[in-house]
Every structure is written in C-alpha cells, then in structure tokens.
Predict the 3D structure of the following.
Amino acid sequence: MLTAVGVGATIALAGCSGNSQEGSGNGENKPENTQTETESPTENTGGDTTESQDTETPTETGSQFSTEGNDSELITRSPEELVLTESDLPREDYSVTSSDGTTSPQIVEFYKVFESEEGRLENRTRKYDEGDRVSLAEEFYDHLPRNIGGSIVDQTELDIAVESKFLLFDLDNDLGYLSYIKFRDANAVSILSWITENEPVGLQEIGSLAVTLHQSWR
C-alpha cells in the first residue's frame, strides 16, 4: 500500500513574491497561512483542496534542530547534490527505489525515493537559478505542503536553514502517517516526506535527518 501513496506531488510551482532575508535558523520567518494547501496522497498532480479540519496550533520551536542559512549566499550546487543518500538514513533497511530530475529555464529539481517494508521516504529539492531567486524560493516554501489529504496532529517550527517546519499528518482512508519537513536556504527548498503505516516517524528522527541533509549543502 505504501508504494502506492504518492508523496512526490508535495512539490508544485508557486508564484513570485516576497523579500530576501538573511539569518540563522528561522528567526525572521513570515507567519504561515492558517489555510494550508493540501493534496490527496494518491495523486501526484491536480488542483488544491482544503485541509481537513485542523484545530492544532504550532508547538514551541524545535530549537534542538538548528543549522545556519544565509539568503545573501545563493546555493550553487546541483539538486542531485542536495538530496539524501542511503548512507544518510538512520534505518538500514531502506534503499533507493527511484530518482529523477527536471529542468526548466528557471528551476532545477531532483528527488529520491527510499522504501522498505515499513515505509516510504521521499526527499525532493528545488533550486531557482534565474530571476529573483530567493523570493521565488520563499513563495514556493510558503505554499507547501500542497494536496496532502489528512489532518495535522502536530506541527513545530524549526531552526534549520533560514526557515523550516515539521508537520505530522494522520492520513485519510487509513493510509497511515506522514511525517513532513520543509526547509529553505536562500534559493533552494527541500522537502522530506516519510510515510509509515502503523507508527509515525517522530520529530526526533526526521528532524535529525533534515539537519544532516542541510549541513551537507554548504
């Protein structure tokens, strides 16, 4: 069942707006909309839907998950170098089952999917190479996640890169749990989407993985 649940569609191009910022962690984050865009976990594309009823409020900042980002220093490495490798994973039974990249005049993107009998982890990174690159990345970050069907049972602001956030979804139709982290550094945004059927992946594990990933960027 887990391989049929598409987490790849958490990526969708957002418009261009926002201002550049510089800092460590997410101290200058803009408030996120209370109406998060969501997507059905069985579809990789399609229109936005409204999230299930959500009365949760963000928990206190997960300050133990902290790395430095800088909007004044653009990310120049290729997206293939900005995603996880098997050696980064905390669980040895996961292996790469697919990977791919896309390129447009403005955007380059790459993803990897890691799977085992217990779950499915996708890491996708998008980098803007033209235009107002930091503002475009900010806009994209602000509109994530998109089209994830389910209710939020936990959410925590993090201090990874320039801005970052953890969300835990209880997915619709008994599809399990989705642990989700997004973070942005300058002109690049990365997403970790980890689906498990019986027990959710906690912030401690996926947060540490996000720290490992971002530390490899610069």
The helical segments are 133-142, 203-215. Confidence is low (pLDDT under 50) at residues 1-61. The chain has one domain: 2-12+52-215. DSSP finds two helices and ten strands in the chain.
